[in-house]
Design a protein that fits this description.
Layout lengths: L5 H18 L7 H8 L3 H7 L3 H23 L6 H23 L6 H9 L4 H27 L9 H22 L3 H15 L4 H5 L1
Helix pairs in contact: 1-2, 1-4, 4-7, 5-7, 5-9, 6-7, 7-8, 8-9
């Protein structure tokens, strides 16, 4: 059997770490656990990553790349701004449902879970969390500006503060769903709560 390409080995380690840490926790997963699950020896692990923290950072980058690909479509400028938020909720629920069916539990936000556990102990993880959070909030700001421009939100709306509030709300709902292991929190509450935060209603609700 031929040797596995080095780049494949690196990606397998990232994918394995992301799954194990997301479904469990950073502290409960060792380098040995990751190597065993990935089918990779420890020498190969340390060839790519000086430490478990470095692997965690690479996993956060990989998760961010996947999220960005999804959000580029969800928050397309060609989509009406309120529908962008509605579609975002749909994507969040779809992903969490997929993960629930795979692992048998709600896993929440991978960056949020890792940040809660490790940001106070590892500065690089806190900085990486801040970086990815800012990227998400930029999508929200652009949609909010378009909502102001279309008269959906009042002109005095502070889009920066409102984007921060949306980020905290979504992260909080994901964290609560993970803690309670209850997918219905997201299916039932995420969209109505977000609409309430925005101070708007769906067109059908407005017309009724």
């Amino acid at each position: 059997m031929g040797r596995r390409p080095l780049q494949d080995t690196r990606q397998i380690l990232i994918d394995t770490a992301l799954e194990l840490v997301w479904a469990n926790s950073y502290g409960s997963v060792s380098v040995d656990d990751i190597c065993k699950a990935a089918g990779v020896n420890k020498g190969s692990f340390y060839h790519f990553f000086p430490s478990k923290v470095d692997l965690a950072l690479a996993a956060m980058d990989h998760s961010h790349d996947e999220f960005r690909a999804a959000y580029d479509g969800v928050f397309s400028p060609g989509t009406p701004p309120l529908q962008r938020f509605e579609r975002m909720v749909e994507v969040v629920v779809e992903k969490q449902t997929e993960i629930f069916e795979k692992y048998g539990r709600v896993c929440g936000c991978p960056d949020g879970s890792l940040g809660c556990e490790m940001a106070g102990l590892e500065e690089r993880i806190r900085l990486k969390f801040d970086e990815t959070a800012e990227y998400k909030k930029n999508y929200y700001r652009n949609a909010l500006r378009d909502m102001v421009a279309e008269g959906i939100l009042p002109p005095e709306t502070d889009v920066k503060i409102k984007a921060d509030e949306i980020f905290v709300y979504v992260l909080g709902q994901l964290t609560l769903a993970r803690i309670q292991n209850d997918l219905s929190i997201l299916k039932r509450d995420l969209m109505p709560g977000l609409l309430g935060l925005l101070g708007v209603q769906r067109p059908a609700e407005t017309a009724s």
